[in-house]
Automatic annotation (TrEMBL):
<dbReference type="InterPro" id="IPR036291">
    <property type="entry name" value="NAD(P)-bd_dom_sf"/>
</dbReference>
<dbReference type="Pfam" id="PF00107">
    <property type="entry name" value="ADH_zinc_N"/>
</dbReference>
<comment type="similarity">
    <text>Belongs to the zinc-containing alcohol dehydrogenase family.</text>
</comment>
<protein>
    <recommendedName>
        <fullName>Enoyl reductase (ER) domain-containing protein</fullName>
    </recommendedName>
</protein>
<dbReference type="InterPro" id="IPR047122">
    <property type="entry name" value="Trans-enoyl_RdTase-like"/>
</dbReference>
<dbReference type="InterPro" id="IPR013149">
    <property type="entry name" value="ADH-like_C"/>
</dbReference>
<comment type="subunit">
    <text>Monomer.</text>
</comment>
<dbReference type="InterPro" id="IPR011032">
    <property type="entry name" value="GroES-like_sf"/>
</dbReference>
<dbReference type="InterPro" id="IPR013154">
    <property type="entry name" value="ADH-like_N"/>
</dbReference>
<dbReference type="Pfam" id="PF08240">
    <property type="entry name" value="ADH_N"/>
</dbReference>
<dbReference type="InterPro" id="IPR020843">
    <property type="entry name" value="ER"/>
</dbReference>
<dbReference type="GO" id="GO:0016651">
    <property type="term" value="F:oxidoreductase activity, acting on NAD(P)H"/>
</dbReference>
<keyword id="KW-0560">Oxidoreductase</keyword>
<feature type="domain" description="Enoyl reductase (ER)">
    <location>
        <begin position="14"/>
        <end position="343"/>
    </location>
</feature>
Length: 345
């Protein structure tokens, strides 16, 4: 392993990324050094590049979080991750590491905490493996944010339903897959062209959010099916108001819960006896590390082994390696639907 490696470096707020050399770090006691083979892109990546938000405390910075690659070295205390040479999926983000540029995914060698590194099955490519980390963590954190433990197993006779608004996004696709393992009857919204795919992932019924009567369509279906819809996940912007319109009709006098993945506006709409919470992991490191372990070594690892969790949504590969990250991020920023952009490194 060389003493230095290439990285896509963010030299200052507002970017662009520039490719340069960085010293290859040693993993700390609970860390894993990954030789990155592919990264997936998320909106947070171009927000950090262009706006410095969420906060980038250290410049020059290395951003990115979604990676798949090969274990180069294990920290002294790591026993839960397969050894050097193994193929892995890794959430390699500087965000929870005080901005440490050794931990960002957009480089050839990146550090990740062991809680967020799991084996990549032989049947999946590095490009497929890269789509999981941030979307899985966000989708699963939504449940715990509103008090639903990840080991929940509703039975059909419990008649527990959930509404996922924005199911064709990467977070939405894993929200559907995880809601299925929790035992929910799943109602989801997406563009019409994605409906069959979302049903394959586990949704009971999918609705076109562009339809003028989408709220009454969902309410009618829930009543017809005789289920209890008190829980929702707003995955995308502009989804809270219609979601509350649905809940108003389906929750009766019961308390309801909304996990909201986009940042909540200060003047957001509300509904009686309805808790609306911004979807975000605990800022307490011990609590967050345990949650990360449950997300990756629990739900994701178990689902990959059993085949019940699949990479989603479909992948659009962009070339150019580290040099290709700027144009690939620009494509994501311009808008995509029902795909995840992946860049081999």
């Amino acid at each position: 392993m060389a003493a230095t490696h290439q990285a896509a470096i963010l030299p200052q707020k507002g970017g662009p990324l520039t490719v340069g050399e960085r010293a290859t770090p040693e993993p700390g006691p609970n860390e894993v050094l990954i030789e990155v083979k592919a990264v997936a892109l998320n909106p947070v990546d171009y927000f950090q590049r262009d706006l410095g938000m969420p906060p980038v405390p250290i410049y020059p910075a290395v951003i990115g979080s979604d990676s798949a690659g090969i274990v180069a070295k294990l920290g002294a205390n790591v026993s839960t991750v397969p050894g050097p040479g193994s193929r892995v999926i890794a959430f390699a983000s500087s965000f929870y590491q005080n901005g440490s540029p050794d931990h960002g995914a957009f480089q050839k060698y990146a550090l990740a905490q062991s809680e967020s590194v799991v084996a990549l099955p032989d049947a999946l490519s590095f490009k497929e493996g890269a789509v999981f980390p941030l979307a899985v963590m966000t989708a699963l954190t939504a449940w715990t944010t509103v008090g639903i433990p990840l080991d929940t197993k509703y039975a059909p006779q419990d008649k527990q339903a959930v509404l996922i608004w924005g199911a064709a996004s990467s977070v939405g696709a894993f929200a559907v897959q995880s809601a299925k393992t929790l035992g929910f009857t799943i109602y989801a919204t997406a563009s019409a062209k994605h409906h069959e795919y979302i049903k394959k992932l586990g949704a009971h019924a999918v609705f076109d959010y562009k339809a003028s009567d989408v709220v009454s369509q969902i309410v009618d279906a829930v009543r017809r099916d005789g289920v209890n819809l008190h829980t929702t996940h707003c995955v995308v912007n502009e989804s809270l108001q219609p979601t509350l319109h649905v809940l108003k009709e389906t929750k009766g006098d019961a308390a309801a819960k909304v996990a909201h993945s986009p940042v909540l506006p200060k003047d957001h709409p509300t509904l009686d006896k309805t808790e609306i919470k911004f979807n975000f992991p605990s800022m307490n490191k011990a609590v967050r590390d345990k949650h990360m372990y449950q997300c990756f070594h629990g739900w994701l690892q178990d689902g990959l082994r059993s085949g019940s969790v699949v990479p989603s949504p479909s992948i659009q590969v962009e070339g150019g390696g580290l040099e290709g990250l700027n144009p690939a991020l620009d494509k994501l920023k311009a808008g995509v639907s029902g795909i995840k952009i992946v860049v081999p490194i």
